[in-house]
What does this fold into?
Amino acid sequence: MSTLGKVEAVGLTKEFRGAKRRPGLSGAVHDLFQREYSTTRAVDDISFSIEPGEMVGYIGPNGAGKSTSVKILTGILTPTSGEVRANGFIPYKQRMAYAATIGAVFGQRTQLWWDIPVVESFRLLKEIYEVSDSDYEARLRRFDEILSLNEYMEKPVRKLSLGQRMRCDMAAALIHNPPLLFLDEPTIGLDLLAKEAIRKFLKEINQEFGTTMLLTTHDLADIEELCDRLMLIDHGRILFDGQLDSLKSRLRLQNQVRFELKDPEQADAIEALCLDGVTCEKRGPLTCLLGFDRERYATGDIIRRVVAAADVRDIFVEEESIESIIRRIYTDSGVLAAKD
It folds into this structure.
């Protein structure tokens, strides 16, 4: 059975040891002769398996351990303990051979050469990865079909907009058709149209080539659009690993109803209707968003109460967004355990 595109981590742990610094000049002198150290555990005994062709969202707050664990998976860092194998390689032991089988896109960095035309960067990567002429031309044609690259292939990278550069970085990462792709904030700073182009490209590459993708992002729309599976990490530990729909079903989901009012003074009347388990958020002088536990309250009852108390111009019923779900998980550590 092929191991290409498969990722396995068992008991993965990474600790960083740093020197403590005492305050003041006397403390600095003391540190010269007697240094004290502290140990921080950035990744804490995590285990998971990603199958070939999966698109997995890997999310968590800043400092949760996402970047550290991705650096271990890409071979940049060596774990303190535990085992990891990707594409059949041990990343930190077989860096050179392993690097030829993966692609990586980092939203704030580029793998393109800054002062030369985009096409020259592609040609250099073709030689580095030893891609045949026929494969190279076929892939560029396919990438252009989805990303419309030809219009700026002759431009130096430094003259590209962020959205154009990200499209080129996507193509560069996939020019050797790697079975495993790491994506770190691939849509950061992009406008809506550019984000849609990147997401469409990733979907089509996954479907056409079966490329395994691990996506870290703070834009949860990326997760909803691209990933069926979600891994949540916090304080170096995996809080949840499973299907996105499963996460939603395990939580006590809220319904949300947005009311557009005719009179801004009536917003206070709606706030007065907020009972136990009902929240009210003002989103402007004429807009109120009511959130409520759908197991305790019927949507129709909430609407009837508001319509009776205020002049309503329009009503929108919404399901709780994944962003709101994740926020609740991180602000209430027992929210997942309560469903076990």
User: Anything to note?
Assistant: The two ends are 34 Å apart (CA to CA). The mean pLDDT is 86. The longest strand covers residues 37-50.
